[in-house]
Specification:
Layout: H1 7-14, H2 19-37, E1 40-43, E2 45-50, E3 56-57, H3 76-88, E4 93-98, H4 106-120, E5 123-127, H5 133-142, E6 146-148, H6 156-162, E7 163-164, H7 168-180, E8 184-191, H8 198-211, E9 215-220, H9 237-251, H10 270-275, E10 280-281, H11 288-291, H12 310-320, E11 324-325
Length: about 325
């Protein structure tokens, strides 16, 4: 039996605490990353174009019940200017991300996608949540290349307890539609959610493998004061790194970001993530006056810098661990 297909075995690895064994796990993941993904770190420029959201997810600061958050939407031209800056910095993908904005016009977003492709010729990744299949098809036809929709957890009971008014089955429907429409599809989880176990994380990894996702985003749960999970414990960074490492070993070629959340806890752990199997960084190109308002979690990294100022830091980060930027 291939033990990497067994949730019990993976759960035991995720429970490792011995430092020597942990280092062996991270070294193994780093070797797999080097073999299958190479040493060049991929950059993807992030544009958070709206913080409006109609959902009530219990972990997210953008939730509709958070009345203290100042809301914003970028104009089309602000989005296009950010995408142009990304292209001028020789980054070949723009990630357009928002809350699940009930006012999002699918035709408007399609027009923005077409204009980005026409002006800059770069890849477009979308992350705007659950939508009807016809919206996904419209955006794919407009030129969108990739779509990121995190499952957050494959434990249906835990999922339901965190997502008021949402359906786990509909989440799966969305992911299925995206793959059938030909998107490079990404998903992911938060590590450290209340009620989550190593065994459930192991099942998440097997889910990623079964579905063959192109990218998997894995970051720590960071509690937000304006959510139902305010005051709970944040995710353990070692468990995040173990999950990254094991996902790399199991999936081999997958793109794994060292997430901004991993850099926004007590210290910046993105270099540790890169040494545990990650190969993607996502500098933030949201216009500076809006960055602080996209507060999914508190103390988010790099919210005071000018637009695109993070990109030069990526080279220094890569160099510090003997890697290069793609």
């Amino acid at each position: 039996m291939n033990t990497y297909k067994d949730a019990g075995y993976l759960g035991k690895i995720l429970s490792i605490e011995d430092e020597e064994q942990l280092q062996k796990l991270f070294d193994r993941a780093d070797a797999v990353r080097k073999q299958y993904a190479g040493d060049a770190i991929i950059l993807r420029g992030l544009v958070e174009f709206s913080n409006h959201c109609g959902r009530h997810c219990y972990y997210c600061g953008l939730n509709a019940a958070n009345k203290s958050l100042e809301r914003y939407r970028l104009t089309d031209e602000e989005i296009l200017e950010s995408a142009a800056k990304i292209a001028s910095d020789n980054i070949r993908t723009v990630v357009l991300q928002s809350g699940e904005d009930p006012a999002l016009d699918p035709q408007r977003l399609a027009a923005v996608i077409r204009e980005i492709k026409a002006r800059n010729g770069i890849a477009v990744t979308l992350s705007v949540g659950e939508r009807p299949r016809e919206d996904y098809a419209l955006w794919k036809k407009a030129g969108a290349d990739r779509y990121l929709l995190k499952i957050e957890t494959t434990d249906k009971g835990l999922y339901d307890s965190l997502h008021s008014g949402m359906s786990f089955d509909n989440r799966l429907r969305c992911l299925r539609d995206l793959k059938e429409l030909g998107y490079e599809t990404g998903s992911g989880i938060m590590v450290g959610l209340p009620g989550q176990t190593p065994r459930s994380i192991a099942n998440d990894i097997l889910f990623f493998k079964e579905w063959g996702f192109d990218m998997v985003g894995i970051g720590p749960f960071i509690p937000h004061g304006k959510t139902q999970l305010a005051g709970t414990q944040p995710g353990d960074v070692n468990l995040v790194l173990k999950t990254l490492a094991l996902t790399r070993i199991v999936m081999k070629k997958v793109n794994l970001p060292a997430t901004t959340a991993l850099g926004s806890i007590e210290k910046d752990y993105r270099a540790d993530g890169l040494k545990a199997g990650a190969n993607v960084l996502m500098p933030n190109y949201t216009p500076a006056k809006y960055k602080r308002l996209y507060e999914i979690y508190p103390n988010k990294r790099c919210i005071s810098e000018a637009t695109g100022a993070c990109a030069p830091c990526m080279g220094s980060l890569a160099e510090s661990i003997g890697r290069t930027i793609a």
